[in-house]
Amino acid sequence: MRRxxxxxxxxxxxxxxxxxxxxxxxxxxxxxxxxxxxxxANVDGCAACFACNNxxxxxxxxxxxxxxxxxxxxxxxxxxxRRKVANILKNSPALVERLKRARTETDAGPVxxxxxxxxxxxxxxxxxxxxxxxxxxxxxxxxxVYWARPLCTLSANERDYFEGRPNGLVGLWxxxxxxxxxxxxxxxxxxxxxxxxxVQENRYRYRPCxxxxxxxxxxxxxxxxxxxxxxx
Length: 232
Description:
alpha+beta
């Protein structure tokens, strides 16, 4: 796993990408909890203060666990697929009970009532990291666009929009000095069709977009689709 602090220009030097205060830690983007071991090489890092970097630890655990519950239909640490999540659940019986209470059986199978505020906090943190690292555009303000839904609930048109079809990256160039421009010019193998960067297959991928402000598309666990955007 590489540990990179990318500073495209003075906007990122010495400042926490979440609050703007002095930075003394490296915030992994995405969180290591969302990935399996061995960690891939392309896990990036952005400058963050200790408070911001550690304030969402329990929310990140919750997101990793609720994603696994939704993907597998289970909240039992002996039955989930991901070892990291199983370990969290084994050490957190209160969380297991909380997740089990969030499950409802339906004719179509189990559904889970999610704690949306916790999910949103983590997804915004991830989007801010990608906006800074890839597009050289820190965004500490609230986004203008936010949604997060299971991939399977997207219509065909919504899925095309999410995937970046049909136009992809044609004619679009990010800011000079940004990591994304470097990826494009050097034909970085991390970038695939339509600009998706796959951090770990079926675990985490994301697509930075700069056509209309700053937009970050993310897919987690092959299950959750998300868009976070700033239009100005």
